Amino acid sequence: MARRLVALAVLLVFLLLPTAAQAVAEGRTTAAGTPVAAEPTDEPSPTESESAAPTVPDGPYLSVRLLDEGEPVPGVTISATDADGGELGSAETADNGIAIIEIPGSGTYTVELDEETLPDGIALDDETGNTREVRAPLNGPNIVVYNIGTQAADTAGFGFQLSAALVSGLKFGLITALAALGLSLIFGTTGLTNFSHGELITFGGLMTWVFNVSFGLPVIVAGLLAMVFAAGFGWVQERGLWRPLRKRGTGLIAMMIVSIGFALFLRYLFQYFFGPQTKSLSQYTTQQRQTYGPIAIADKEIVIILVGIVVIAVTCIALMKTRLGKAMRAVSDNPPLAASSGMRVDGVVAAAWILGTALSGLAGALLAVNSQVNFLMGFKLLLLVFAAVTLGGLGTIWGALLGSMVIGFMVEVGPLFGVPSSIKEVGALVVLILVLLIRPQGILGRRQRVG
Amino acid sequence: MDLFEILRAALSQALGPQAIVLALAAIGLNVHFGYTGLLNFGQAGFMSVAAYGLAVPIVIMDLPFVAGLVMALLMPVVLAVVLGFPTLRLRADYLAIATIATAEILRLVFGSVEMRDIFGGSNGLTGYARPFQDLNPYGSGIDLGIFALSRNDLWAATVGWILVALCSLLVWALMRSPWGRVLRSIREDEQAVRSLGKNVFAYKMQALVLGGVFGGLAGLFLALRQASVVPSDYGTNITFFAYTALLIGGAARVLGPVVGAIIFWFLLSGLGALFSQATSGANPLIPEVIMSNQQASLVRFILVGLALMLLMIFRPQGIFGDRREIAIDGR
């Protein structure tokens, strides 16, 4: 039974001058002009044996470090070419995962990883190519960190691949559904197409990381706190920004553009405080999938799926049964009528914001547990959430759910049926446009004028 | 703190090729959003098809330079027609989502590993701009102290500003014609225009094509100037920056996007230089604890977001615009 583990490789590429090598060895990070991740690296120690530590040349060189889940990957051939395509040579990663290639000087280089030489059971993730472009200025150590996801090469049969893809699809669909429910609630009650919704997801992920890594709390507690903070953030946003805008009669299109400005503002603010790196939580980062009959699933994936199902079920039942849920549906149906029936529309809208951002924050927290934390994690999901919501029908709860599951399965199962996996999200976006063409109100949406 | 350096950086960018790219993209958005009320969030898509329309025929298919130029002008038209048919009947927010999704689809496809043989993957395509560079009549760059452009940038800026002037002239002429008046009326009240017997869909399509071609010129110009086409240049940010520039200058005004783009880049690179100086050196003005040199490069983008919000809230008409002329109240 071939295991299908999703592993992570960190590839460090940096250019060092002999004088600058000292600075890095001391773990000092030097700021470069571009937003690069600077992390202290274990320099190959001279005491180690020759095979374990390649010798550092006198001139400038590229140092490529290949890590799989933090474990160095030896014996992989890395080659570099210059901007004109001229071969500069290749090197094999040593026991510490480092390969060193000498380069003539500053410039842009392309580093290529020979996939043939990867150890058995590890293959490059399709999302990232095996080549990277590296800019190497000579004015100091320039450390570029980037991730190459690797996963176990699949030698298993189609059935097993399908079940694995279905598990991923279910998980991804549920996370999308949480975010889509949040978006749908807010859209339903306020009519706002919120382009800053991706940043609300990111907020949940970042807060989970902050509570988990900075404050040292367990991941589960951190995730719950992140959800609470996201809810608070939603309330503050509603009171401080969106309600005043509604009160002064700002149009919906104007609000949509405001939400774009808000999204840019938040995204760069996140990067300001969190940095451009992708970071891991302290627990549950690596879990291998275990097989249960035909299904291979990691423990954390089971938890993510269960949490998703339970939270979505509770939310839906609450929206159907409770007074507040009824009020929300009334407001989304016809705000003036709801107001004239004696409802506190502002209170209902505030509740929708709190609930919506809490759900999105939870989606971010689950995403953080599932993979890693990055300031762009929510933005990358935003268009898929839009696709899900539009597919199901803007503003409807069941539509958001159905659309998310369709999108989740499409994205994850699509590659099995010939969708190029580096662009597996494209299929979902194409569906979005097709739905708008054929049935603009979505699968479950009410027929109304959308044109 | 060297104010002269900051001013020099700001001016050189505001009058250099970067501002031209943004101005051309914003002129296109002005036709879409300012005059017709179409909320196109996919201007980056029009830019990318033009840039790849230039590069692919020359680099991959070995066709002459002129063929690339023709393709670069043709592709935005094709995209506008293909995109317009399903989406132009949609409400503004749906149109926004559909166009941004299209732009992202294009960017992902252009950058995909599977199509690296055609589009060059994430590294993009290079090696097509030689004929453009060979036309450069200047012997050297320009350095007036407070304003400097390299030889290549000076040539690009000359071509670019002529292009901007021609586009602005065209927009000015079109918008005072009966055709332009129909576009404005569509923005104000689509039903009224329909009841007058005008084919609203056809007018919207023509506006989408025209603005798309302006966006395409922005992509073409960017591709020629930096001599490489990289998919990451055509993310959603460029569209939103163009919107910010348009809203600074004022939508539905001929010179609004041009002035907006100049001001946008003046402030963006001025602030960039300011914070970079304030955080560099042995004893920086702003302590390292509050803001590192890396963080300094982000402050200007945080401010862009803030500026877009505040503009839309407090002065949606920008510098020159007329508040009644902005299509932001309907849906």
Task: Describe the 3D structure.
Helices cover 50% and strands 15% of the residues of chain A. In chain A, the strands form 3 sheets. In chain A, strands 1, 2, 3, 6, 8 and 10 form a 6-stranded antiparallel sheet that branches. Mean pLDDT of chain A is 77; it is low at 1-53, 138-142 and 149-154. Chain A is elongated and about 80 Å long. The longest helix of chain A is centred in the middle third of the chain and has 33 residues, at 158-190. Chain A has 2 domains: 6-16 and 29-151, Immunoglobulin-like (Sandwich), CATH 2.60.40; 158-438, ABC transporter involved in vitamin B12 uptake, BtuC (Orthogonal Bundle). In chain A, helix 3 runs parallel beside helix 5, helix 6 (299-321) crosses helix 7 and helix 11 crosses helix 12 (424-438). Chain A has 451 residues and is an alpha+beta fold. Chain B has 331 residues and is mainly α. Chain B has one domain: Orthogonal Bundle (ABC transporter involved in vitamin B12 uptake, BtuC), CATH 1.10.3470. Helix content of chain B is 69%, strand content 2%. Chain B has 14 helices and 4 strands. In chain B, the strands form 2 sheets. Chain B has a two-stranded antiparallel sheet. In chain B, helix 1 (3-14) packs antiparallel against helix 13 (256-279), helix 12 packs across helix 14 (293-314) and helix 13 runs antiparallel to helix 14 (293-314). Chain B is globular, with a radius of gyration of 20 Å. Chain B starts with a helix and ends in a 17-residue tail after the last helix. The chains are: A alpha+beta (451), B mainly alpha (331). At the A-B interface, helix 5, helix 10 and helix 12 of A face helix 4, helix 5, helix 12 and helix 14 of B.
